Amino acid sequence: MNLLKISLFAIVFFALTASTTAQNKHLLTTKLFAKLPDICPTPDAFDIAPDGSLTLSCPNFADKTKPGVLMSISRDGKVTKLVEIPVLASTGKSNPMGIAYDDQGALYLCDNQQNKGRLLRMVFNDNKLISTEIVAYGFNSINGIRYNNGYVYITQTNLPKLKKDKVVGGVYCFKTTERDIRVNNDRSDKNLIYTSVTQNLKRQVGLDGLVFNKKGELFVGNLGDATIYKLTLNADGKVERDEVYAKLPVNSAPDGINIDDKGNLYVAGFAQNQIFKVDTNQNIELLAQYPDNDGALGGLDQPADLIVYNGKLVISNFDLMVAKGMINSKHSKPYTISYLDLNE
User: Fold this and answer.
1) 3-state SS assignment for residue 144
2) What is the DSSP string of 229-246?
3) Fewer CB within 10 Å: N-end or C-end of the chain?
4) What are phi and psi for residue 16, nearest 5 degrees?
5) Three-state SS for 344?
6) Is the link from the previous residue into 160 a cis peptide, with omega within 30 of 0?
């Protein structure tokens, strides 16, 4: 009888092991794209600069003695400092997060400062900052940003004035010609075009990553609910229709979202060190997943943003937040950018 039990246990154990192995065979290995210097302990968001290099924002929440900076990363991973972000006079700091270039080469930047956040328009010439203008100010939690057809769209993860019992996140839309718009963070804001209530009581965080497809449809992720919405916009940039596009595992905390030429979405799973792919048939695939690590070998270390770039999926490792339900256990060196080869 004991031998029978042992044999049955062995069979079950082997089956479970084989099943686990099969489920993990498709997972890809991320590699090290670049190590970042000490001036960039908290890498966040990407966009592709007019010269074809990558621009990376570093809000540097991990070391408040360091200014917020933009870094330039060449195709082969060489990292140089682009510029320090002009500080807000009343706080003496800047926290650059989402960034987006328009079709004229101007850069729009989300400066995340509670109730004092700014949407900035920055113009460069030969990588030198020529001018900085304020498009809008007074944001509570400005985060992600995209440019599309003469408008910039930004997310706010939390609009406290709209909260009843659950967090409300929002999407704002601004014409690129607008300047010095005061934001009230409530429905009196004419630029507020969409809101979403986070239902997950275990993670009360709202809208975060966003990206457009070639049709001009806007995909935006609710980090707390792990839900990606598809928004259909009219010619004025307003939302005509919204629908649930994908539901990721609720513990994944989707942050940055990007898209390839075929319309496949890629999503950074912030909480569990994951990268997901959502194809045009809305099928969800887990591409990569890592346990807690320091990122030294290119492993995912709290991925915040990602971008399709020269056949690669380049990923920033935020490596800062430590909270219940998150794999990350501490902030540590090295400060890294990872990548997946999309051609493998």
Assistant:
1) strand
2) EEEEE-TTS-EEEEEEEE
3) N
4) -65, -40
5) coil
6) no
More confident site: 4 or 156:
156
pLDDT digits (tens, 9 = 90+) for 194-213: 999 999 999 999 999 999 99
Peptide bond into 96 cis (omega under 30): no
- Torsion angle, CA of 245/249/252/255, rounded to 10 degrees? 0
User: Within 13 Å, how many C-alpha atoms sit on residue 86's CB side?
Assistant: 14
Helix (H) or strand (E) holding 20: helix 2-24
Q: E strands along 95-247, which residues?
A: 96-101, 107-111, 117-125, 128-139, 142-148, 151-156, 168-175, 181-182, 192-197, 207-212, 218-222, 227-233, 239-247
* pLDDT of the residue at 344: 75
Token output for 263:
């319309």
For residue 260, name the pLDDT band (cuts at 50, 70, 90): very high
- pLDDT (0 to 100) of residue 284: 98
What's the CA angle centered on 196, arms 192 and 200, to 5 degrees?
A: 150
Query: Strands of 312-317's sheet, edge to edge?
Result: 31-36, 335-341, 312-317, 303-309
Q: What integer pLDDT is reported at residue 115 of this predicted model?
A: 96
Query: If you compute the radius of gyration of the chain from its CA atoms, what whole number of angstroms results?
Result: 21
**Has residue 10 got a pLDDT over 70?**
no
CB 253 within 8 A of CB 205: yes
- Contact indicator for 142, 119 with CB cutoff of 8 Å: yes
Alpha helices by DSSP H, listed for the chain, are 2-24
* Whether residue 51 has pLDDT greater than 50: yes
- Rounded CA-CA distance 98/111 in Å is 8
Structure token digits, residue 98: 């989402």
Query: What is the rounded distance in angstroms from the CA atom of residue 291 to the CA atom of residue 327?
Result: 7
Q: Which two tokens stand for residue 296?
A: 């030294």
CA distance 324 to 321: 10
